[in-house]
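anyone else get weird line breaks when pasting these?? whatever heres mine. first is seq + tokens for prot A
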Amino acid sequence: MKLQRMNRRALTLGALAVSGALALTACGSDDTSDKSGGSSASSSSTANASSIKCDDAKGQLLADGSSAQKNAIDAWVAQFSQACGVQINYKASGSGAGVTSFNQGQLAFAGSDSALKPEEVTASKKVCSGGQGIDLPMVGGPIALGYNLPGVDNLVLDAKTIAEIFNNQIKTWNAPEIKKLNPDAKLPSTKIQAFHRSDESGTTDNFTKYLKAAAPSVWGKYEGGKAWEAPGGQSAPQSAGVAQQVKQTAGAIGYFELSYAKDMSSVQIDTGASAPVAANVENATKAIADAKVIGTGQDLALQLNYNTKADGAYPMVLVTYEIACDKGNKADTLPATKAFLRYIASEDGQKILADASYAPIPDAIIAKVRTTIEGLS
């Protein structure tokens, strides 16, 4: 009888341990199961948590910015918080909001899909005592063009056609320009509903940089940047908002980071290469590997080649930067900020990205990021 009681007690404690672990996982991330694959990334990398170097990390970190990287941040936070006990609150309000809040001294770090502008670097010097804000490329990936057109699979568009759609020039899905690129598709006369971001967004910045580079005859008149400029179309906030509108609107098309396109069809791009190129991690990595570091000093801002015609290179890519002070970080948040950035730039941290539909930063670039992080003060 005594042995039976001991066995029952052991089973009860084991069940409690499992349920407690599940509760921790649930608290560590948003519900992204319908769009990100972030949950699977987190579970597949649980064993890596024990290898995270926490040092003196403690307390809480407040961060904000790019919504495109939110699913990656969620997966990273789940691992880091479990290992180090640090609470990280990443708000994902958009790149513009993140940079603004960082330069107001409200954040430990910010996320932005665009490198800091000269005036933003100048503003950061008021917050980074004796230093400035720097760009650390950490997340790569394709900007997918998700669409809602039942019965039409493997839709192919080129840069000029994409530009004319989002410039409110091509208005129906059976337009001659689209038919020419998709001769075997049964294209309906459905009205095109083009969705763009309502908030200032690095995703918008990168999307329009691609259009300016690859379709200058249509998009060359726009200055570009984080705010949407073209007429017409409809808008929604953050990547999640645009993706949700595309999912629920017949005839819709919108741009967002690949992890938000899990449950919908995505456009293949005719770049002039031997075959149209699909939006996936492998094809985005081929394009990002062609990037050049153009930042000076400790800044690692990149110049992407949006007009590549290399076979298998998906040209519509973005790189999200984590923005931190090179010097003058707040003493109470520096240890945790440095430990978190070190982890996400590590081999284990970058491995999570592919599971969550992001592209890891190429080795030559991420090696420079790791060196820079160790020098943060």
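and prot B, same format (seq, then tokens)
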Amino acid sequence: MMTGGAMLCALATAHGAQFKLPQFETTKLPNGLTVMLMERHEVPLISVRAVVRAGAVNDGPQAGLANLTGDAILLGSTKHDKKAIDEAFDFRGATLAGGGATEQTTVQANFARADAPALLPLFAEIVQQPGFDNAELDKLRARKVSGLKQAKESPRQVAGIYYRSMLFGDAPYANPPGGTVASLQALKQADVKSFHGRYFRPDNAAIVVVGDFQPAEMKRQIEALFGQWRAEGPAPQRVDYGKPVTGKPRVWLVDKPDAIETTFLIGGAGIARNDPDYVPLQVLNTVLGGRFTSWLNDELRVNSGLTYGANSAFAPNAQAGVFSISSFTALPKTEAALDLALKTYNRLWDKGIDKATLDSAKAYVKGQFPPRFETGDQLASLLGDMFALNVERAQIDNFMRDVDGLTPEKAKALVDRHFPRKNLQMVLVGKAAEIRKIAAKYGDVTELDISADGFKPGAK
């Protein structure tokens, strides 16, 4: 990989315009830190991102720890408190953010090129030497606890968490990234410091810089700011984070007694983020439920009026992922909506995808793809995901080729290979007293109480 200021190809049409990821350089410092530099001189801005290979999968019994740590890093460093850092960024119109996801924790900043000498050192401080001020940490934790309680009042915010918990069972991929009320309330300053010390280390992290800079000078700055970062003990090893459990048709019925709607997800096992079929599957999913004119949205919203929207998606992780159809409907229409969703889904096998439909989806996907990676921040996010989720640049560079090469025959083979058809898994969030008998049509039913803490059966 080389340095370069190659521009994005912003036009991707059915006539075959190509999208290529701009050139970037990847190096490693002697302490094991990965450094990814992509220079772009169109605007005088710089996006910098620290990516750590640790997230909810590393929480263990302390659900929400990675997420809390990622946000708590923004509370100040050992040298500068939160107020001083906030003022430094705000005064210059810069942004600073952080957080923990399923498999990565990130700290990111965006600022003008002229402000790099002032803000890069502060960025380096909070990544390596966060203060984790106890008073600020208490306030942050309280806000997160309130957010979790409020989320349970909106089924669409939490249905996906129940779904992943259902599919992955006790495996790390089932861990709720935001934690639970009880788990968050139990987390202390010492837990956050321990997580940071265990996983925030140069041989488990990358620094990504995208924007208007000179590579040689930026390398010197990164080496000066991060070259003395040291790790103690062996680096964390990746383990098996789990595979979806789909041995028989199951339904998790999450009871919300005051619900007037039923929110549902249907599906099963998906793919890993680096699966070679990742790109063509985006096209096929576009037909099924990936755009407003998809089969699911047409049938459940436009033609029947059963819902305001329906979609489907593959949600991949580094090792495994899930596929789901999702929507919601008025309580009395629950059975009709579920049956129509399943009938529409089965069109993938019953009728297949004809060439005209496939060509339309291909054109749509090709038009949507490049605009996702136009800004420096978007590109920095992509490079961070590539580092954290083991994605090679070939997947991006060959995007147009893989879309263009999709035929109805290949589409059928991919549908058979990747879209779950048997032993479908279902989460229903709604008024159990009204939909209990309906739920039993679709598999073995397990009932949960939405007011219980957490996202597993037996929670209290």
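btw re prot B: Residues 1-16 have pLDDT under 50 and may be disordered. The two ends are 52 Å apart (CA to CA).
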